[in-house]
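Input record, target 12 of the design panel.
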C-alpha cells in the first residue's frame, strides 16, 4: 500500500507544466543530436530538415519525453533527466560546432554558449552538480586530469605528425628546426642553413637554449615527427603544476579536475601548434611551475624555473617583468619582486647586446607602429606608451586589415575561461592580465590569432589568474562558472581543433601511398651528403644534411643561386615550380628524375 502511494506521489510530482517542458526539451535535444549524426546532408543547408518526416520526428520526441518521465519516477534522487539534459545539450552543441560552416562559426559559437549558459545555471539551481562529491580520492583526480591531458595531447601531436607526413609542414617554421636538430645531434651546435639562407646559428636569430632539453629525446628518435610529439608533451605537462597549485590554493578535487579539463582542451594551447614547432611551447609549463613554486613559497625552485623561462627566448623577460610587477604589490614580497625584475632586465640586456653584436639583433620590427625612431627597440614601445598614451590606445583594437580580429582574439582567450581571470576585486591582480597587450598592440597580423604560437605565454598567466580567483570565489558562482568554462572550452576545441585534425588525417589516409612514394624517392635520389635547394614543403623531409636551402629565398640580386649539387621541386605546385625549373635548366642543371609529384635536377 505504502509503495503504491509513493508511486502516486511521484506521478503527481512529474505531472506539472515545468516538468513536462523539461522532459520535452531534453527529448528534443536527444532526437536532434541523433538526427545530426544520421543526416546525410549538412545541417547548414535548409534541405537537411526534409530528410526526416515531420510527424515521425514529433512522435520520436514525445516517446523520448515519456521515457524521461519514466526515468524520473524510477530514480528521481539521481536526477536522471537533468543529467540527460546536460549530456544531450552538450553533445548536440558539440556536433553543431564540430561541423560548423567556417563562414559564421563564431556567431554560432556565441549562440550555442548562450543557450548552454542558461542550461547550466538552471541545472546548478536544481542541485545536479551537488551529486558529484567536492572532494574525492586524489588518485581519481589525477587520473581524470591525466586522461584529459593525454587525450588532447594525442590529438595535438597527431596534427603535427600528419602535417609532416602529408608534406604540409613548410620550412618556416618546421624545416629550420629539422635542420637545427640534425646539426645539434651531429655537433652540438644549433646551426642552420635554411633559416637565413646561410650557415648561421639559430641563436643569432632567437636566443633559445631551452631547445637543448629536447635534444636527448631527439638522440633516441632522430626523426622530424619526434619534434612534433615533443611539443605536445611539453605543452600538456603544464597540467601538473596547474593541479598542484589548485590543491595548494584550496580548490576541491571536483574543481581541480574540471580545471584540468579546461586546460587540456583550451583552444589557444592546441591551436598554437597548427603551424608546427616553436620554442614558445615551453612558456606554458615553465611559467606555470614558476607561479606554482612561488605560491608554495619555494623561492629557490621559483628562481630555477624563472631562469628556464628566460632561456626560452630573448623576449621572455617581459613575462617575468609582469610577474615581478604583480609580486611587488603582495605583502612582504617587494624584495623578491625587485630581484626578479632586475635579473630579467639584466639577462635581456646581456642577451640583446650579444645578439646585436654577433647575430641579427632583437626582433622589434613587429611593434614598429609604436616605435617612432626607426632605430629604436622594445624599450621605445614603453616610451610611446608613457609619452603618447592616446596614440597607444588607438592601436589596441585596430588591426592591419581593419577588421575585428583583435576583439575576436580577446574573446577567444577569455570566453573558454568564462572570464574567470577577471572575476576578482583585487585590483593588483589585473597586472597579471597585461601580457594580452603584447599581442594586441602590434600590427603583425599573426600575433592576435590563437592559431599561432604567440598565445602560449599569455595562456599561463590566464590560468594562474583563474586559479587565484577561483580560490576566493563563493560556492555558488564557482558551481556555475567552472562547468560553463568546461563546456565553453571543449566546444571551441571541437570547432577550431578537431576539423583541423580531421582534415590532415583524412588527407593522409586518402593519399598515403603517394606520400610514402615521395618519401622513398627523396631518400633514394639524394645522396646523404649532397647540398640541396628545394621547395618549402619538401625541406623538412631532407633537412638531415649540412647544406639545405629553401628555393624561394636562395637568391642573389633577385635571381636563383645555382651553387648546390641538387635542386628538388614540389610538382604539386607545378606553376610555381616550373618557372624555377626553367631557370635552373638554362643555368647548368639537368633533370635527373621526374614524376607527377617531384622533379630532381642535378648540376652538370
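The sequence produced for target 12 reads:
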Amino acid at each position: 500500500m505504502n509503495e503504491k502511494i509513493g508511486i502516486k506521489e511521484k506521478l503527481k510530482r512529474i505531472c506539472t507544466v515545468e516538468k513536462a517542458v523539461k522532459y520535452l526539451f531534453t527529448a528534443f535535444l536527444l532526437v536532434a543530436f541523433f538526427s545530426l549524426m544520421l543526416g546525410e546532408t549538412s545541417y547548414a543547408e535548409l534541405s537537411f530538415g526534409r530528410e526526416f518526416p515531420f510527424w515521425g520526428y514529433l512522435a520520436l520526441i514525445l516517446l523520448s519525453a515519456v521515457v524521461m518521465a519514466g526515468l524520473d519516477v524510477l530514480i528521481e534522487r539521481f536526477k536522471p533527466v537533468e543529467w540527460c539534459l546536460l549530456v544531450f545539450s552538450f553533445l548536440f552543441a558539440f556536433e553543431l560546432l564540430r561541423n560548423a560552416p567556417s563562414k559564421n562559426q563564431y556567431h554560432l559559437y556565441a549562440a550555442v554558449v548562450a543557450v548552454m549558459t542558461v542550461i547550466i545555471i538552471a541545472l546548478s539551481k536544481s542541485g545536479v552538480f551537488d551529486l558529484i562529491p567536492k572532494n574525492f580520492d586524489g588518485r581519481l583526480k589525477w587520473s581524470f586530469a591525466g586522461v584529459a591531458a593525454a587525450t588532447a595531447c594525442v590529438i595535438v601531436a597527431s596534427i603535427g605528425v600528419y602535417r609532416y607526413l602529408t608534406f604540409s609542414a613548410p620550412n618556416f617554421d618546421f624545416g629550420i628546426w629539422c635542420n637545427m636538430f640534425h646539426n645539434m645531434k651531429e655537433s652540438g651546435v644549433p646551426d642552420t642553413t635554411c633559416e637565413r639562407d646561410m650557415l648561421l646559428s639559430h641563436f643569432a636569430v632567437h636566443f633559445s637554449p631551452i631547445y637543448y632539453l629536447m635534444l636527448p629525446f631527439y638522440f633516441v628518435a632522430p626523426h622530424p615527427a619526434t619534434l612534433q610529439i615533443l611539443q605536445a608533451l611539453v605543452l600538456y605537462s603544464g597540467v601538473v603544476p596547474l593541479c598542484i597549485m589548485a590543491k595548494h590554493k584550496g580548490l576541491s578535487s571536483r574543481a581541480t579536475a574540471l580545471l584540468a579539463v579546461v586546460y587540456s582542451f583550451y583552444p589557444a594551447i592546441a591551436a598554437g601548434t597548427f603551424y608546427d614547432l616553436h620554442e614558445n611551447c615551453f612558456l606554458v609549463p615553465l611559467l606555470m611551475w614558476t607561479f606554482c613554486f612561488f605560491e608554495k613559497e619555494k623561492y629557490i625552485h621559483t628562481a630555477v624555473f624563472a631562469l628556464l623561462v628566460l632561456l626560452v627566448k630573448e623576449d621572455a623577460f617581459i613575462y617575468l617583468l609582469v610577474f615581478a610587477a604583480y609580486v611587488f604589490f603582495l605583502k612582504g614580497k617587494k624584495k623578491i619582486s625587485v630581484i626578479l625584475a632586475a635579473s630579467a632586465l639584466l639577462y635581456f640586456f646581456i642577451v640583446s647586446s650579444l645578439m646585436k653584436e654577433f647575430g641579427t639583433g632583437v626582433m622589434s620590427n613587429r611593434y614598429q607602429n609604436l616605435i617612432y625612431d626607426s632605430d629604436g627597440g622594445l624599450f621605445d614601445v614603453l616610451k610611446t606608451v608613457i609619452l603618447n598614451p592616446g596614440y597607444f590606445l588607438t592601436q589596441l583594437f585596430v588591426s592591419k586589415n581593419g577588421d575585428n580580429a583583435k576583439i575576436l582574439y580577446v574573446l577567444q582567450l577569455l570566453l573558454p575561461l568564462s572570464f574567470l581571470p577577471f572575476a576578482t576585486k583585487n585590483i593588483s591582480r589585473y597586472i597579471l592580465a597585461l601580457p594580452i597587450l603584447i599581442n594586441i598592440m602590434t600590427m603583425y597580423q599573426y600575433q592576435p590569432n590563437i592559431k599561432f604560437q604567440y598565445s602560449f605565454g599569455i595562456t599561463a598567466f590566464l590560468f594562474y589568474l583563474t586559479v587565484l580567483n577561483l580560490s576566493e570565489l563563493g560556492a555558488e558562482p564557482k558551481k556555475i562558472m567552472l562547468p560553463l568554462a568546461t563546456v565553453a572550452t571543449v566546444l571551441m576545441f571541437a570547432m577550431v581543433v578537431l576539423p583541423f585534425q580531421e582534415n590532415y588525417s583524412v588527407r593522409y589516409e586518402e593519399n598515403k601511398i603517394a606520400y610514402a612514394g615521395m618519401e622513398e624517392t627523396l631518400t633514394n635520389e639524394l645522396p646523404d651528403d649532397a647540398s640541396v635547394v628545394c621547395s618549402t614543403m619538401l625541406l623538412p623531409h631532407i633537412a638531415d644534411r649540412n647544406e639545405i636551402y629553401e628555393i624561394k629565398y636562395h637568391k642573389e640580386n633577385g635571381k636563383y643561386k645555382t651553387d648546390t649539387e641538387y635542386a628538388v621541386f614540389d610538382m604539386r605546385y607545378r606553376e610555381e615550380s616550373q618557372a624555377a625549373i626553367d631557370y635552373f635548366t638554362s643555368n647548368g642543371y639537368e633533370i635527373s628524375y621526374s614524376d607527377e609529384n617531384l622533379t630532381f635536377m642535378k648540376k652538370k
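Residues 138-165 form the longest helix (28 residues).
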